[in-house]
Amino acid sequence: MAKAPAHAFASTLKTFKTPSGAAGKYWSLKELAKQYPSVNRLPVSIRIVLESVLRNCDGQKVLPKHVEELAHWAPNADRVDEIPFVVTRVVLQDFTGVPLLADLAAMRSVAAKLGKSPKTIEPLVPVDLVVDHSVMVDYYGTPKALDLNMKLEFQRNNERYQFMKWGMQAFDTFRVVPPGFGIVHQVNLEYFARGVYKSSSDNAEVPVYYPDSLVGTDSHTTMINGVGVVGWGVGGIEAEAAMLGQPVYMLTPDVVGFELTGKLREGVTATDLVLYVTAILRAEKVVGKFVEFFGPGAASIGVPDRATIGNMAPEYGATMGFFPVDEATVAYFEGTGRTREEVERFEAYYKAQGLFGMPAPGDIDYTKIVKLDLGTVSPSLAGPKRPQDRIDLGHLSTKFSELFSKPNDANGFNQPVERLKLRYPLTTSGQGNDNEAAPPPPGAPREVVEMVANRSTKAAAHVNATAPAAPKSGVTIGNGDVLIAAITSCTNTSNPSVMLAAGLLAKKAVEAGLTVKPHVKTSLAPGSRIVTEYLEKAGLLPYLEKLGFYLAGYGCTTCIGNAGDLTPEINDAIIKNDLVGAAVLSGNRNFEARIHPNLKANFLASPPLVVAFAIAGNVMVDLMTEPVGKGKNGKDVYLGDIWPTPKEIDDNLRHAMNAKSFRENYDKVKTDPGKFWSSIKGTTGQVYDWPESTYIAEPPFFQGFKMEPHASDAGFKGARIMALFGDSITTDHISPAGSIKESSPAGIWLKAHGVAKADFNSYGSRRGNHDVMMRGTFANVRIKNLMIPPDINGTQEEGGVTLFQPAASEGAQSAPQKMFIYDAAMKYMEQGIPTVVFGGEEYGTGSSRDWAAKGTQLLGIKAVVARSFERIHRANLVGMGVLPLQFRGADSWQTLGLTGEEKIDVVIGGELKPQMDVKLVVHRADGTHQEVTVRLRIDTPIEVDYYKHGGILPFVLRQLLAA
């Protein structure tokens, strides 16, 4: 038997010891620095990636030259070196995890058809999936909201959960955290992350340990950066490759150092800080870069604040928002239930590596340094359409009034100024009051209907008279009204200081006699059960409930688009009067139509500000100068009267870090997953049998699969333009996650397959079915295809429509036909005509949504041409065999004068190479043509291989089956 080749850097394998005397081996960066002295001044995040490259240097996928190249990282070098980064583990949430599991199941089906062992397809690193995106806020303002919402969740998602149960028994390294435990990123912080790891196959007396690292199928995977873990969000297709043994390939990144100094002022929250950071870094254009925080200010803030900042990395565009490991990290691990042995080993390892402690100014060479004095941060919100658009709290009223009448292209709402203050009556009663539960949604299961009908007198008594009543006769609504106030999302609900602040503000508000306005839909959806436990221990949960913030679920609710519907009379009033209603949420995403299709203005805010705006009822109330509301005896109550002091928050933080509570809570993942989850029965076997379902279907990406890829030219001719888009087209625009419109192609398909409107669920929940998802591509109700001429008022039509250009055979004089993008795509594909999409800056910003690329490919779109791309979506397009092409200089589709009537050639001369220049030829209807050079954004050599194989999935499958 051939002897394994010696490790090229074998001399760097050293031993460390914990204070208790336990020993471990590690690949020493200090030892490597003897050969490459510059290692000692590398950013900490780069050094952690370097450790992985060093440890996995096998002479095959990871070569000695990769170690050398990364060890020679220079702050401002050209980024041409490709890093093969082998991650420790992979984390999924259910919206992105289900299609990934479907792809793996389809790979097993292919293996079985080719006579190979299905077990060939098996994750080689641990994979954890948290079911957190499926709960909706159908019920609110009642003590039964959690139970009612979870019952509906399990009814709606039974087929998906059966599929997950199959995956748990089919794959050895695939674990699932059931619904009701929390949001994936908070569970990742509190439970999954163990500091340092060793391989499950390493049974040596002194095993080799290495740092935690990961990729996740949710953009906000970066929240784990708060505990010094290198990890970021990728599309599901990249995560599959990582699971199946492929390194995560990337170009060596720039690393921007963010120096924090000073201290936050009284009354300023971590949310305010992160909105400042987001605005600063988005302006710095850090897309595709690492951001590493350092300095005395970074050392002074706790892990929850760090995690809040790391969480928002997708909003400021960075690959990561990284905080090095220090004493605060160790304290967090101790307080959240890690064992003494784990914490000791974690600290000893990082000290041995020379990676322990917050870097001081001058310690490290960064590409660029950005600075912020924490003392300059002020209370803020962000919106109304993008998370980077920070607004001082005292300027919100003025800003909303300005945007009300500004044109759409200036981020405004294009409304006549005289309509701003008009109000309209609601004439019918809505959902719930002091003594009755919310009515069950159509199609609710029998037990839900009975629970509502038979709600006990005792339960009814717990709904305080100050809880938000339904809109009744005499209530009016108008522009700027807060119609949704949600304490939701991983960004803030992982942070005890802001959650306790919300509870303390609620307590003071209730004691002052304040109530929430009747038109506000309130909800509390914490990131984990630990949150409600410490709010209860602090005695604050009853006050939140008295203001209507009853526990609605443990999951990513409002922020992902699962806010649930508004009452029919509110929806009718909004639509009939074209109102600009508002949501205020403690989330990280506020893109158009994401929160609710009828709410045009969505503002991110800290949890205590969410409560304050629920009381104020309208975003045009200036909370810095005007009363929040009237309290006892009609007395004006101001925000300063009810805002908690730092001491009040600090006095209650002791309830938030209880190691025993964390251990007991997460032990239940195995011992007590809940009666609903335990009742789910999935099919068994190593190969999925694909029962008929509108939720789960065998994906088409491996149809006609052969071991040899089909050779084809990368370029094409005579393509039609499917859409012309402006700047900041998000993955929500491309592939929405929220509700499915009945008249949309997806809605029509579901009805044709016997699904009632009440059972449509959401696009996110149906990501396991390509028939729904390809019909949902570019189907966001707020997307604007600029091929469609504006109306006489300059307002652009919204919705996923295009102008289909008939072929010459259909008549030379045939006029373009307006139709759904899906319908036009099918007609072009029938005729064998390729299509392209044009966009502006930041195309594909937002969530790491692989269906935004999968759907694009299934619609026959061969290329997307844009001014710039967000990191994850660009990679996903390549991973699905779609060309991302980037305009150079000041070029754009506008400077080319495109209208949508043109035909497009993409000419690639010679062999396909990373970031090569290619020719775009525009053929106009009058017979003239124009050429422009664009940059091919296939960035690395491995991406060239992915593209040649038709995408990353066929590439990986061929490798596995060949082995």
Walk me through the structure.
The chain is α/β, with parallel strands linked by helices and 963 residues long. The protein contains 35 helices and 34 strands. The strands form eleven sheets. Strands 26-29-30-31-34-33-32 form a seven-stranded mixed barrel. The model is unreliable at 429-471 (pLDDT under 50).
What layout of secondary structure does this protein have?
Blueprint: E1 13-17, E2 23-27, H1 29-35, H2 44-55, H3 64-71, E3 82-85, E4 89-93, H4 94-113, E5 127-130, H5 145-156, H6 158-170, E6 174-177, H7 184-192, E7 196-197, E8 210-211, E9 213-216, E10 230-233, H8 236-243, E11 248-251, E12 255-261, H9 270-284, E13 290-294, H10 296-300, H11 303-311, H12 313-316, E14 320-322, H13 327-335, H14 340-352, E15 368-373, E16 380-382, E17 390-392, H15 396-405, E18 423-425, H16 446-453, H17 457-461, E19 476-478, E20 482-487, H18 490-493, H19 496-511, E21 521-524, H20 529-537, H21 541-546, H22 568-577, E22 581-585, E23 599-604, H23 607-616, E24 629-630, E25 636-637, H24 639-642, H25 646-653, H26 659-671, H27 675-678, E26 716-724, H28 731-734, H29 745-752, H30 770-776, E27 801-804, E28 817-820, H31 821-830, E29 835-838, H32 850-858, E30 861-866, H33 871-879, E31 883-887, E32 903-907, E33 917-923, E34 929-936, H34 941-948, H35 952-962
Parallel strand pairs: 4-5, 4-9, 5-6, 9-10, 12-13, 12-15, 13-14, 20-21, 20-22, 22-23, 26-29, 29-30, 30-31
Antiparallel strand pairs: 1-2, 3-11, 7-8, 16-17, 18-19, 24-25, 26-32, 27-28, 31-34, 32-33, 33-34
